[in-house]
Design brief:
159 residues, 32% strand, 4-stranded antiparallel beta sheet, transmembrane helix, N_methyl_site, alpha+beta, single chain, minor pseudopilin epsh fold
Length: 159
């Protein structure tokens, strides 16, 4: 004997729920991976922009002949000194020594290297260019499987 009901059973089956949860999980997983990759590219691009900015600041300060209080001798220029694989310093360079203006640490996961034995890179006063013995050098920032290059040429052009 079967009982008949006027109400039909409404709802989702277990299989439908599992399929829905799996699809949602895949969408979130792919979105997270894409966001993480984007975030890492932005960190690398930001570090390269900051390096270009510090190089341009050194160039501008040298062109302007701006001395700091520590520089009591004749101003020779401003230099970018790569102090380690993860940091660099902007320094004013005078006849009585070099003095730090700003120190920059790269974000975690990034490293810095150059293809030139010249370190620091000096921007000379009065637009006399740089101390580079070759036509240009590459400063490379790497991390997260990605690479960004900053090129400085002998005349002081920064790309």
């Amino acid at each position: 004997m079967q009982l008949q009901s006027d109400q039909s059973l409404k709802g989702y089956t277990l299989v439908e729920l599992l399929v829905s949860v799996t699809i949602i999980g895949l969408v979130f997983g792919v979105g997270y991976v894409a966001f993480r990759s984007f975030s890492q590219r932005q960190i690398l691009d930001g570090a390269a922009r900051d390096l270009r900015g510090q190089l341009r600041l050194a160039q501008e300060q040298a062109l302007a002949g701006k001395k700091t209080a520590d520089c009591t001798g004749t101003l020779t220029g401003y230099q970018l000194n790569i102090t380690s694989g993860v940091s660099y310093d902007l320094e004013v360079y005078c006849t009585n020594g070099s003095f730090p203006v700003k120190s920059v640490d790269l974000p975690t996961g990034l490293s810095l290297q150059t293809d030139s034995p010249v370190n620091p890179i000096l921007f000379k006063v009065l637009g006399e260019g740089t101390n580079l013995p070759v036509s240009s050098i590459n400063i490379t920032i790497t991390g997260f499987g990605l690479t960004q290059s900053v090129v400085v040429n002998k005349t002081g052009n920064i790309e």
